[in-house]
Amino acid sequence: MENDGSGSSWNEQYASEDSKQSGKRTGHRHTPQQIQGLEAFFMECPHPDEAQRQQLCEELKLGPDQVKFWFQNKRTQCKAQEERAGNLSLRAENEILKNENEAMFGALSSVLCPDCGGPPFGREEHTLNFQKLLLENVRLKEQRDKIAHLLSNMSKRPTVGDPFASVPTQHISSYGINPSNMFDPSSSFGPPTSQPIQPQPISQMDVSLLSETAASAVEELKRLFFSEEQFWVKSSIDGTDVIDSENYEKFSNAVKKFRSTSAYVESSKDVTVVPIEATTLIEMFLDAEKWKELFPTMVNKAKKLHVLGSELPIRENCNILRVMWEQLHILSPLVPPREFMIVRCCQEISKGLWIIADVSHNVDFDFDFVNASCYKRPSGCLIQSMPNAQSKVMWIEHVEVAQKLDTHKIYRELLSGGSGYGAKRWIATLERMCERMALTSNLTLPASDWSEVIRTGEERRRVLKLGERMIMNFNEMLTMSGKVDFPQQSKCGVRVSMRMNLEAGQPPGLIVSAASSLRIPLPPVQVFDILRKLDTRQQWDVLAYGTVVTEIARIATGSSETNCLSILRVHPTQEENNNGKMIAQESDKDDMLMLQDCYMDALGGMLVYAPMDMATMDTTLSGADVKISDIPILPSGFIISSDGRRSTVEDGGTLLTLAFQILVSGRTSRSREVNERSVDTVSALISSTVQRIKGLLNCPDQF
To answer: DNA-binding region at which residues (predicted)?
Structure first.
């Protein structure tokens, strides 16, 4: 059949009743306008559902079979092209490896002992020397970790030039990859999430290149912000604003970073007004640690590598430059993190109006990225100072993504729209965190709060800070470094990882983390409300099983009543009252407490909690010469998100992720039996919790 390059070339349909009866079909070419419309939609959504195909039929005046077959053929054609390109690349690589292998064998055959000029080592000698080197490597690693741990206790804020600033103090291992040595913390299993990032010297040529890159990004963002009608169109998937690629390519000098046919571009725009001074907000954007604190559910790691400005020639387009590295992660271990090496430029373009531009750069700092699958085109925000200590923020996100970032199928639809890493999520997080910061700065006890244990504004502030750290720790755990899948009867796998913790702020010893994600056929708001109810908590929470849970403190963290921090008391004994309800009995034992932080915004919400005893809570409230960052806490919880099929959290379905962390042994215990038993226990625990939650939500087994 002849091919016109559009993916389906000839789309077949029945021409008449006669042709139907005779079994013959007549081929019809699509018009250029129809092909253009189909191609544009395919770039955004290669797998349209029935409603989207019907919409295309009406817009392009095509039959359902024509649209269906076009997309099938187009996907087949793209896959074949990618496979051909991959095969050619693999053949060339294989040829290179064969040549290198032959050269290495030739070199090894002529190697002589450097001491005596004798023949090379035999296999046994090589093995013995290799084992000696491994043992020496283990010893050196242990020494390095001891030094790093001591330094972290002496100084929580290392200087940029500190050679130990990026030495990790956690040993990551995973269950099921190498049983013979998975209990040795010096072993490394699976690919790490990222390499340690150390500042490197920067040449004057690199400074000039970064300056030009930032200047170009600022100019491009200005055009995107101020030429709205020319460059922006409505997405055919979810109705959000996206960049018109055809008009964009006419004025931009950007070259596609990824040549694969499966690579795609994400673009989005959103705007809001937040209760924070513009200058304060800009300062947080330019400080890597404050940037991470401002977006704790999105920015997993961030590091400022270089500060440029005074060394730069004075130019109109650059006022302040930062070279930064960041790792972003959202929602679930099933969503891969994204890493960017960016240059961030801040410029005041008029009185009270600033532009902050982020763009990936091509300066080689000799960093080896595990996740070099994302490239940030000029993105950023426009910040306008407004009366009453408020700021108007307009956000643009424009990213090129390689298909090798393997997102699980239940999250693909969500990420393909503007609800993934797009501007809408940045804006929703910014709104929530600015509200929280405004309430945290209140040194009095607001009328909206109530508590049996918090008596002063300072105690309230310390509890809120502990809640913020709990959410940050929970989100850092969600990347699940060294992850392994465990199949479950609920049709969703349990992802388990283990780590030997040496850091302050979490219990020392072996910690097992487990997470599972599933689809729920209920709106996110309804799922959130059910999980937050205290009278049904004992039905799913193993910490509250067979007990009574009461709330003894509540602190508002936002304007919505769904956004609050609570202190819960779990009563281990109970009795039934005259109405048949279970109530707490008086007990001489100390009740267990739980710190819980929860919120809902335009895209979903979280419910994070951690058990603690009364002594730890007293230490938190009193201060007692203990930093909030040193109080040991091990959070678990839920991430609740819309499934991407609707525009709000009041309708549509829910993607629910639950994640647990459990301390299974002290820092000195590394036995194989403990690890295997711990993984089995945690895997069974999270699977049973999934089933209990399904029962509580009346969710069918097929979900």
So the answer is: 23-82
pLDDT greater than 90 at residue 663: no
Which tokens go with 545? 């099983």
DSSP-H helix ranges across 546-671: 614-622
Residue 569 tokens read as 């008391």
* Structure tokens that stand for 376 in this block: 């940030």
Mean pLDDT of 687-694: 87
Query: What span, in angstroms and rounded, lies between the C-alpha atoms of 622 and 462?
Result: 9
Strand 379-386 with 636-642, pairing = unpaired
DSSP calls for 82-109: HHHHHHHHHHHHHHHHHHHHHHHHHHHH
Tell me phi and psi for residue 591, to 5 degrees. -70, 150
Helix (H, G, I), strand (E, B) or coil at 250: helix
Is the distance from CB of 494 to CB of 175 less than 8 angstroms?
Answer: no
Cα distance between residue 650 and residue 522, in whole Å? 9
Tell me the per-residue pLDDT of 608-640, one tens digit each, with 9 for 90 and over: 999 988 888 888 888 766 788 888 889 999 999
- Contact (Cβ atoms closer than 8 angstroms) between residue 630 and residue 505: yes
- Looking up tokens 């639809």 gives 413
Contacts of 156 (CB under 8 A, 6+ apart): 629
Q: Quick one: which of 46, 48, 56 has its CA closest to 263?
A: 46
Which amino acid is residue 132, in one-letter code?
K
Nearest 5°: the CA angle 340, 344, 349 is: 150
Contact 308, 469 (CB under 8 A): no
* Euclidean distance between CA atoms 363 and 342, whole angstroms: 10
- Alpha helix ranges (H) inside 343-456: 409-416, 423-440
SS3 383: strand
Q: 77 by DSSP, 3-state: which? A: helix
* Distance in angstroms (rounded) separating the CA atoms of residues 178 and 157: 35
Distance from CA of residue 536 to its chain's centroid?
30
Distance separating alpha carbons of residues 517 and 655, to the nearest angstrom? 7
Residue 466 dihedral angles phi and psi, to the nearest 5°: -65, -35
Query: Tokens in use for 9?
Result: 């070339």
Q: Do residues 82 and 90 touch, judged by C-beta distance below 8 A?
A: no
Contact between residue 551 and residue 566 where contact means Cβ atoms under 8 Å apart:
yes
Give residue 189's pLDDT.
32
**DSSP-H helix ranges across 268-374:** 278-286, 288-294
Torsion-angle region of residue 230: left (phi > 0), alpha (psi -120 to 50) or beta? Answer: alpha
Q: What are φ and ψ of residue 691, in 5° steps?
A: -65, -40
Place of tokens 């699940």: 480
184 pLDDT higher than 80 = no
- Backbone φ and ψ for 638, nearest 5 degrees, come out as -130, 145
Amino acid identity of 566?
Answer: S
- In this structure, are residues 27 and 66 in contact, taking their beta carbons and an 8 Å threshold? no
